[in-house]
Amino acid sequence: LLRRLSAFIGGWTLEAAETVCADESIESLEVLDLLAHLVDKSLVGMDEFAVEPRYRMLETIRQYAREKLLDSNERDQLRDQHLHFFMQFAEYIEPILETAERLEWVARLEVEHDNLRAALEWACERHLETARWLAGLLERFWFFGDHLDEARTWYARVLNAGEQISVTKGLALALFSSGCVSLNLERLDEAQVLLESSVALWQQLGE
């Protein structure tokens, strides 16, 4: 479990650990007990005063665990599972950011910002469509969290990488979100091109 937890950057919740780290060798129901052992041995720390209990490792321990993860040949599977978890997390939260609960959930996303960056980084390496979709989902967080410059960097990366011939929802959403960022940065001509391109793709997709 210790080596698998090195997939997280900046900490994790119990739910995240149970989802990302469990498989046929570690059942999700075992994770809490194993985490407690790691806390007892001071290999993992726990913040009991967070909104929900949150765990983290010292960076030196995480680097050691990460080396063990690389040696185990589990890295790709763990990072895939990490990406899937935070994709679902972003999909769940994205509509909430337009409600009265926005401040609470922006704060929760802020806590997971390093994990979201890691998930995006892996998606850029593994599956461009997934990277575009995840980046598109995060536009409201980046806006409300005042991360527009970072958002612009991510959109430049996912939109300028690889072929754009295929009409996909990921590409359409990334174009739309990138257009919103350009609009908020008052790059109006750029925003118009991106938003019109997004509209054209959504129409081709029948949405």
Architecture overview:
The chain is mainly alpha-helical. 70% of the residues lie in helices and 4% in strands. The chain has a 3-stranded antiparallel beta sheet with strand order 1-3-2. Helix 2 (14-21) packs across helix 5 and helix 8 runs antiparallel to helix 10 (148-160).
Give the averaged pLDDT, no decimals: 94
Give a count of the beta strands, DSSP E runs of length 2 or more: 3
Summing up helix and strand content along with how strands pair, one would put the structural category as mainly alpha
Main sheet record: 3 strands, antiparallel
Strand content: under 5%
Radius of gyration: 19 Å
Low-confidence stretches: none
Give the helices and strands, then pairings.
Blueprint: H1 2-5, E1 12-13, H2 14-21, H3 28-40, E2 45-47, E3 54-56, H4 59-72, H5 75-93, H6 102-111, H7 113-126, H8 128-137, H9 139-144, H10 148-160, H11 169-184, H12 188-204
Antiparallel strand pairs: 1-3, 2-3
Helix pairs in contact: 2-3, 2-5, 5-7, 7-8, 8-10, 8-11, 10-11, 11-12
Based on the model shown, name its key terms.
three-stranded antiparallel β-sheet, 12 helices, 207 residues, mainly alpha
Describe the structure concisely for a colleague.
Strand 2 (45-47) and strand 3 (54-56) form a beta hairpin.
